[in-house]
Design a protein that fits this description.
Elements: E1 3-11, E2 17-26, E3 29-34, H1 41-48, E4 56-61, E5 64-65, H2 70-75, E6 77-80, H3 92-102, H4 109-122, H5 138-149, E7 156-160, H6 168-181, E8 186-191, H7 194-200, E9 203-208, E10 211-216, H8 218-223, E11 229-233, H9 236-241, E12 248-254, E13 257-263, E14 273-274, H10 279-289
Parallel strand pairs: 3-8, 3-9, 6-7, 7-8
Antiparallel strand pairs: 1-2, 1-4, 4-5, 9-10, 11-13, 11-14, 12-13
Helix pairs in contact: 3-4, 5-6
């Protein structure tokens, strides 16, 4: 089953165009939605999650009209927003059981309890299931968030900026869990972190100022920049003087000196050497040309 989005638009009061005729096809698996803060990612996620209305356009998943059949969408939807609140002093098992009951999961209390226990095992929270979710670390709370999003066996899972504030270990555990889930359903991962998309997603899109700048696989995106990325190490003074006029893709300090990557269709001279493009180069080159 695919999610088909066609000419989706949304303008907020004051004239801010959050989405501008966005069209794309999202297949089963991990799909990365990449863009800087304020690009329109969260607006798109909220529209697909039935929390917000679009001004125009359409979105369909199989026979379901996502924009109009909101009750049907919610039956197949799992959603993990960027931030979610929890009741203080309520344990993970009680909170998840409550959410399962609200979602109509399980024909009986016993069935529902079995679903909850299985989900907590799956997200590696079984050992702390009787602890209050409000006492969990950031990574544990995100894993609980995935557990609640997976209630009812959704066919569409939307995850908005999930790894912000997580340490590397928690981030890796979260990645592994998302990758496992994404083997059988559509998972849309909205993020501004390029590495998240590169490591997890087989398909992706780049959005900026509400416009779709790229839609395809990460490898296709990188191949499109082949022979057009150049780099060199230089002093901070050389960087500030800028004896060239090519767009800078990124600047990183390596051993105390800036390593500068630029975009050019041909050899730019000035000591630059051809470099293999990566997804970060794609991201910044698309933003630069937008």
């Amino acid at each position: 089953m695919h999610l088909e989005i066609e000419r989706l638009s949304k303008t907020y009061p004051g004239g801010v165009r959050a989405l501008d005729n966005v069209s794309m096809t999202i297949p089963r698996g991990m799909f990365g939605l990449l863009g800087p803060n304020g690009a329109g990612k969260s607006t798109l996620m909220r529209i697909l999650a039935t929390l917000q209305n679009a001004d125009s356009g359409s979105a369909r998943m199989g026979t379901i009209d996502v924009l109009r059949d909101k009750v049907e969408v919610r039956k197949i939807l799992g959603y993990l927003p960027q931030e979610f609140g929890v009741y203080p002093r309520v344990s993970a098992v009680k909170l998840l059981s409550h959410l399962a009951a609200l979602k109509g999961v399980g024909a009986s209390t016993r069935d529902r309890r079995q679903v909850v226990e299985t989900l907590l095992e799956r997200v590696n929270l079984a050992d702390v299931r009787h602890k209050a979710v409000s006492t969990y670390s950031g990574g544990m709370r995100q894993r609980f968030g995935i557990a609640q999003a997976l209630l009812g066996n959704p066919q569409l899972l939307i995850v908005d900026e999930p790894t912000a504030g997580l340490d590397p270990g928690e981030r890796n555990r979260f990645y592994n869990l998302l990758a496992e889930v994404g083997e059988s359903i559509i998972v849309i991962l909205s993020t501004h972190i390029v590495q998240d998309v590169k490591e997890l997603c087989t398909n992706m899109a780049i959005i900026h100022h509400g416009k779709l700048l790229f839609h395809g696989s990460p490898s296709q995106a990188e191949q499109g920049l082949s022979g057009k990325v150049w780099s060199r190490s230089m002093t901070k003074r050389e960087l500030s003087d800028r004896a060239w006029e090519y767009p800078i893709l990124s600047t990183k300090l390596v051993a105390g000196s800036p390593l500068v990557r630029i975009y050019s269709d041909s050899d730019p001279g000035h000591g630059f050497r051809s470099s293999e493009p990566d997804l970060e180069d794609v991201f910044f080159s698309r933003l630069e040309s937008a």
